[in-house]
Amino acid sequence: MTVTGLLDGPGADVLADACASYQPGRELQLVEKLRRRYDATLVTTAVTQASLRHRAVAKFGPDAARMYFTPDGLEQATRSTVGAHRAARIAATLPGSSVVDLGCGIGGDLISAARAGLRVTGVERDPATAQAARANLRALELPGEVVVGDAESFDLSPYDVVFADPARRADGRRVFDHNAYSPPWSFVTALLGRTACVKVAPGIPHDAVPDGVEAEWISDAGEVKEAALWSGHLYAGVDRRATLLPSGASVTEAPEAESGPAARYIYEPDGAVVRAGLVTAVAAAVDGWLLDPRIAYVTAAELVPTPLASAYEVVEELPYKEKALRAWVRANGIGTLEIKKRGVDVDPAQLRKKLSPKGSATATLIVTRIGRDAVAYSCRRVAL
Q1: What is the pTM of this model?
Q2: How many helices (H) and strands (E) would you count in the chain?
Q3: At 354, phi and psi to the nearest 5?
Q4: Beta bridge partners of residue 368, listed in sequence order
Q5: Rounded to an integer, what distance in angstroms lies between the CA atom of residue 269 and that of residue 364?
Q6: What is the pLDDT of residues 24-60, one digit of tens each?
Q7: Distance between alpha carbon 239 and the CA centroid of its chain, in Å?
Q8: How high is the pLDDT of residue 170?
């Protein structure tokens, strides 16, 4: 049964009961309890929906309690903070414009766009997912329409802006090669010949982005979420951008930077900054330099607050040898050990296991490469 059966009547009642009583890990007990009062098929669908709503809070916050999901739709949906950022950019450039969302899924981006005052139409190939998107607009009292259709054959001429989120999964597995997207990359590049925004994976190669299109890498709470390609009237005249949410900090230029030995502080640029190839912007922001010209670590003599990076105070440089590092862990009574690494072939989890931290102290170990040599730094994380 799809979400249609849960929208009103007995289905709505069982869904309300399922959500009110839902506890993770106790789904079977809840099913047994509700089947005493409701149809078995309705109960199974409702408890599944309650579970999806519980998981969806991480992406949609309080809205999740009123929304409808499919498992794949939730997995692929944009986090609301990221969707709101994109919608705000479209609304600021083209206020009140009409937006068609190709492959709208359960409607996460439609919700953000409608709230930004844009006129939205969603196109979704799967009828059950399209129904969930319609139900979500209605549940959140937002205007818009959702039609069942194919992205590649849909008439785009009535719309000011095209938004697309190509499928990046095949046979249940995540696809990393942009040439394996669905619709295909040729369709995406054709869309980018007009005013469009296309959501892509953050691993998109820089040389895959067409000329005259901005690639924006977006992180939320320090986690890189996606890249967005902007074209036509939404192109802001820069090729690469890193945007950090929730602060909204943004950087577009990468000035020249020197490299040199570690100073008192090491800065780890946000993942969006790294993906965008704008690491030297951090060096400029903190009056610092790179530890190595090919590695995304910056160092500086002073602590300078910046939203672009996390900061660590260097306590000492250590030999990158397991015996020496194990002795350092024991001598300092380290029990909680954060390991950061770049440019070296090491699994932090395996290295942590080998070092056997057992004390009460907390420390950060930064392992990286300078030239051909692996080096390690004992550090303290600094709040900015």
Answers
A1: 0.91
A2: 12, 18
A3: -65, -30
A4: 342, 375
A5: 16
A6: 999 999 999 999 999 999 999 999 999 999 999 999 9
A7: 20
A8: 56
